[in-house]
Amino acid sequence: MDQVTVVTGGSRGIGAAVAVRLAEAGHAVGIVYEQAHDAAEETAAAVRAAGTACVAVRADTSVDEQVGAAFDTVAERLGPVTGLVNNAGVTGPLGRFADTSPEVIRRVVDVNVTGALLCARRAVRAMSTRHGGHGGAIVNISSCGATLGSPGEYVHYAASKAAVDAMTVGLAKELAAEGIRVNSVQPGMILTDIHATMGDAQRPWRKKDAVPMGRPGEPSEVAGAVAWLMSPEASYTTGAVLRVSGGL
Ligand code: NAP
């Protein structure tokens, strides 16, 4: 059966690297993005250049109707969905917790937790043998923050990522007998736009000495781990939380 994988937040950064890496492994890719249309189309072109089909769909992953429509479009254009990389995520501005606005806290939880749950729900309904599907794999992109707590930077974000890992463990157990594997990847500091968006483009370099390997990571270094977890080589791996952080 053809592998058709939805990559949320596939327009830029880690998600874009994952989309291309999965294409190299033979997956057709449905890219879901919120705003960056040109970047999404650029990544879609890179996926096609790697040899597989791709469609880029705009959807806010925190809104169920939009998630449902995106999954429908991917299935119509590429075939039945067999995989999900739950990667879309936001941090809000860097800062101490008490100075973080309720609106930012709410948005981070909406996108990182509710959005990941809604995407997983749609994927399960498409892939579970209990729902007439043929099985599949889900990788949730968490963060080292889930265990480090990210004090002084974004405790609300760290908490949202701990929720993502709890979801991984629970869904792995709930879906193991329905043909679906569920795993998390916890990136450390990776060189993407996310640091500039949170207000400090130099953060990965400023904080590099905290990383045992002494450097930030590249999106491709996360993508390789995701591709392995999505592959048949990981056929006995479910409920795992894989840290990809240079030792952080
Ligand atoms: P990024 O460069 O800022 O890209 C974020 C991606 O998520 C973009 O494609 C963006 O779409 C999409 N997105 C955000 N909100 C969305 C929404 N509501 N609906 C749909 N798409 C949405 O981030 P990144 O660094 O690649 O991060 C990817 C994931 O890795 C996130 O979950 C992040 O928390 C996690 N992570 C990153 C690092 C790091 O150091 N970079 C470390 C640990 C964990 P648009 O292009 O349309 O804006």
Automatic annotation (TrEMBL):
It comes from the Bacteria. This is SDR family oxidoreductase. InterPro entries: NAD(P)-bd_dom_sf, SDR_fam. CDD domains: SDR_c. The keyword Oxidoreductase applies. Belongs to the short-chain dehydrogenases/reductases (SDR) family. Keywords: Oxidoreductase. The keyword Oxidoreductase applies.
